[in-house]
Write a structure and sequence with these properties.
The protein has 57 residues and is of the alpha+beta class. The chain is 46% helix and 18% strand.
């Protein structure tokens, strides 16, 4: 999760986020689990229509 939060950029496309952080995860499922946890903790929000992520302060 820290890999995602390290250089956060609002309105970043999820595909770009995966590419940018891919070295920090073993596979895509681990990346998705990290996103799930960040979402449940209220640290990120998704805009499904734009396929972007927003960070909540």
């Amino acid at each position: 999760m820290l890999v995602i939060l390290k250089n956060k950029t609002d309105d970043e496309k999820l595909s770009n986020l995966l590419i940018r952080t891919s070295e920090g995860f073993q596979d895509t499922s681990e990346f998705l689990h990290a996103l799930d946890i960040l979402y449940v903790l209220g640290l990120i929000d998704f805009d499904s229509s734009m396929e972007t992520i927003k960070y909540v302060n």
